[in-house]
Design brief:
EC number: 2.6.1.42
CATH superfamily of the largest domain: D-amino Acid Aminotransferase, subunit A, domain 2
Bound molecules: 4'-deoxy-4'-aminopyridoxal-5'-phosphate
Order of helices and strands: EEHEEHHEEEHEEEEHEHEEEH
Function: Acts on leucine, isoleucine and valine.
InterPro entries: Aminotrans_IV, Aminotrans_IV_CS, Aminotransferase-like, BCAT-like_C, BCAT-like_N, Class-IV_PLP-Dep_Aminotrnsfr
Number of strands: 15
Shape: globular
Radius of gyration: 19 Å
Family: Belongs to the class-IV pyridoxal-phosphate-dependent aminotransferase family.
Structural class: alpha+beta
CATH topology of the largest domain: D-amino Acid Aminotransferase, Chain A, domain 2
Largest sheet: 9 strands, mixed
Protein name: Probable branched-chain-amino-acid aminotransferase
Number of helices: 7
Helix content: 25-40%
Number of domains: 2
Distance between the termini: 37 Å
């Protein structure tokens, strides 16, 4: 198959490739009762893996799944899993919970049927030279009353997926998604930061976007480095008028933006600094 090298711990053993783990009755496959998290291994480090494991178990609770693994157990399995690969590989680390059986009302799951798998696969990360273009998505983020947006749940992703497709069809790499009130929320699977006059601004978590672990780490690192960071309501027009834009997410950590709509922009000093600060932190 076309899958990169993959190892999955399930039911007490490691399996290579893409083993079949769902059937036609699997609740998650049918009704979307699945959560996951995404962390990274590179250069021998797995930055903030403990926070990813915590969020993973919180996501389970938000979806009424049963977090059947303790954080420490998942951390140990991650350490074991990365050894399946040659140490120079860059890996995506994906713990998953899903429900096997139906619960009350059928659309809800039976939490007692929660299953766990830890999947690791080879996935190269963007280098220092990578940047991307964005446009405004016609699709918006749901609010906390409509979806459990602070959980990393599979059921939340089709909305972002259609935003990416729509943006790509218009020649952009990614899209800015607004919240239901029309303020900037995030990119389709990463958080967004703008730089104006040497200061950094990013949307304040308001229950419409994932308050990313990389986002929170980035804010802390920038502040320690003496750079002012405001968490506040951000309008789309401000992104278009920014000196620099960059995004954060576990997958590629920090990626500068090179274009918003028709306006191109250079990768600026604060975006470079943000990327440097993150990797300096990661390698410590
Ligand atoms: N928003 C969404 C919707 C995401 O899927 C992700 C990736 N997990 C992020 C933001 C960035 O979060 P993190 O830094 O925790 O990866």
């Amino acid at each position: 198959s076309g899958w990169s090298e993959t190892w999955t711990w399930i039911d007490g053993a490691w399996q290579g490739g893409n083993p079949a783990i769902a059937g036609p009755r699997t609740h998650a496959f049918w009704q979307g009762s699945s959560v996951f998290d995404g962390a990274r291994f590179f250069d021998g480090v797995m930055p903030d893996l403990d926070l990813h494991c915590q969020r993973f178990n919180n996501s389970a609770q938000a979806l009424y799944l049963k977090p059947i693994m303790r954080e420490g157990e998942i951390l140990e399995l991650c350490a074991e899993g990365v050894k399946k690969f040659s140490s120079d590989k860059q890996l995506y680390i994906k713990p998953m919970y899903w429900a096997e059986e139906d619960g009350p009302g059928v659309i809800s799951c039976d939490p007692e049927s929660t299953r766990f798998a830890l999947c690791l696969f080879e996935a190269p990360m963007a280098g220092d030279d990578v940047s991307m273009s964005v446009t405004l998505s016609p699709f918006r983020r749901p609010s906390i009353e409509t979806m459990p947006v602070n959980a990393k749940a599979g059921c939340l992703y089709p909305n972002g997926a259609r935003a990416v497709r729509e943006a790509k069809a218009r020649g952009f790499d990614n899209a800015v998604m607004l919240d239901t009130l029309g303020n900037v929320a995030e990119l389709t699977a990463a958080n967004i930061f703008l730089v104006k006059d040497g200061e950094v601004h990013t949307p304040v978590p308001n229950g419409t976007f994932l308050n990313g672990i990389t986002r929170q780490r980035m804010i802390q690192l920038l502040r320690v480095a003496g750079i002012t960071v405001y968490e506040r309501t951000v309008a789309y027009a401000e992104l278009k008028a920014a000196d620099e834009l960059f995004s954060t997410g576990n997958y590629n950590k920090v990626v500068p933006l090179n274009r918003i709509e028709e306006r191109t922009m250079e990768i600026g000093p604060v975006s470079r600094k943000a990327r440097e600060l993150y990797f300096e932190y990661a390698h410590k």
